[in-house]
């Protein structure tokens, strides 16, 4: 039987010394962390950059693009007038579309079967019909209703006007695009309202808040987080969709460049002018959509998504931190 002194003698001696000072052999037992080599990722990036460089070189060096002509017509009076009409048409259609779409969404959610059925029928008809067909139908509405009057229903009319004189190309485009946009806006608003938990409405009713006030002050502000992204996509889609009104001879951006290249036969440069303007305006709208989404995300996320400027500032700091981490091993 071993004595306590023997066990003490056979036990390894415990070191009570402090940490060893850093030296040549101090970190020999610590494995060195080597970053993983992503060969496939680097190869894919190299191939993508090579293809992009070839595409950019072909676009710049190809004389058929006629970039001097593009620069000459980019800020011409005809093009700018068409751009202003396109922007005006987009803004008017979006505002009127949502002003009509919000009541349609509320009707769709109503417990009244007549209102909900009428709203569903409106959305069904205008979403099922191509936009071009709707515009052409409204443009030729005079064949169905030669005159429009204002008076007593089923009684005498006090004022009558010919439909051809009342509905010009621009007004026809506004009516057709607005009615089409309202059908989609109604579904966007309805989806946003349904995304809010029903407990919010029940809590408002328990506090004695009316249905209309609860919808305006509680439900809609929370629904905006779901409405804004889709509404932003609708805005960009409406901007590009206004080009279809050129079939009605409305002097929008596309129709303006068409008038120019019908005279000069410089089709490609003028189409590039319209393309660059659409890209520029869409980019501005996309930036605005990002900040609006960030504004309505304040109550849903503790940390807001970084802005593009913040991302650019964070990249050098992250790169320096990674280099500092690797140098410590």
Structural key phrases:
329 residues, mainly alpha, two-stranded antiparallel ribbon, flat
Word description of this protein:
The protein is mainly alpha-helical. It is built from 13 helices and two strands, in the order ααααααββααααααα. It has helices at residues 4-10, 39-61, 67-73, 77-108, 113-128, 131-139, 163-166, 169-194, 198-206, 211-241, 253-264, 267-296, 308-327; strands spanning 147-151, 157-162. A two-stranded antiparallel sheet has the order 1-2. A hairpin with a 5-residue loop joins β1 (147-151) and β2. α10 (211-241) runs antiparallel to α12 (267-296). The longest helix is centred in the first third of the chain and has 32 residues, at 77-108. The two termini are 50 Å apart.
Structure summarized in a few sentences:
The protein is mainly α. Helix content is 69%, strand content 3%.
Fold topology:
Blueprint: H1 4-10, H2 39-61, H3 67-73, H4 77-108, H5 113-128, H6 131-139, E1 147-151, E2 157-162, H7 163-166, H8 169-194, H9 198-206, H10 211-241, H11 253-264, H12 267-296, H13 308-327
Helix pairs in contact: 3-12, 4-5, 4-8, 4-10, 4-11, 5-8, 6-8, 8-10, 9-10, 10-12, 11-12
């Amino acid at each position: 039987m071993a004595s306590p002194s023997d066990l003490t003698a056979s036990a390894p001696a415990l070191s009570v010394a402090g940490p060893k000072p850093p030296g040549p052999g101090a970190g020999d037992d610590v494995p060195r962390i080597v970053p993983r080599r992503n060969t496939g990722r680097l190869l894919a990036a190299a191939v993508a950059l090579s293809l992009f460089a070839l595409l950019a070189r072909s676009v710049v060096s190809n004389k058929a693009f006629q970039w001097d002509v593009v620069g000459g017509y980019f800020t011409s009076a005809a093009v700018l007038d068409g751009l202003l009409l396109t922007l005006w048409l987009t803004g008017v259609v979006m505002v009127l579309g949502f002003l009509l779409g919000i009541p349609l969404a509320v009707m769709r959610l109503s417990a009244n079967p007549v209102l909900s059925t009428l709203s569903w029928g409106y959305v069904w008809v205008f979403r099922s019909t191509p936009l071009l067909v709707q515009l052409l139908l409204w443009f030729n509405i005079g064949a169905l209703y030669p005159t429009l009057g204002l008076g007593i229903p089923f009684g005498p009319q006090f004022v009558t006007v010919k439909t051809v004189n009342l509905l010009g190309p621009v007004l026809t485009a506004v009516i057709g695009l607005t009615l089409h946009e309202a059908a989609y806006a109604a579904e966007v608003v309805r989806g946003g309202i349904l995304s809010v938990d029903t407990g919010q409405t029940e809590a408002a009713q328990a506090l004695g808040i009316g249905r209309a006030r609860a919808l305006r002050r509680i439900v809609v502000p929370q629904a905006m987080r779901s409405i804004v992204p889709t509404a932003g996509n609708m805005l960009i889609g409406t901007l590009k969709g206004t080009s279809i009104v050129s079939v009605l001879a409305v002097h929008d951006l596309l129709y303006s460049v068409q008038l120019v290249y019908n005279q000069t036969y410089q089709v490609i440069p003028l189409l590039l002018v319209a393309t660059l303007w659409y890209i520029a305006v869409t980019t501005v709208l996309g930036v605005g959509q990002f900040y609006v989404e960030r504004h309505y995300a304040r109550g849903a996320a503790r940390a807001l998504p970084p802005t593009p400027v913040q991302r650019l500032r964070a990249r050098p700091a992250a790169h320096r931190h990674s280099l500092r981490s690797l140098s410590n091993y």
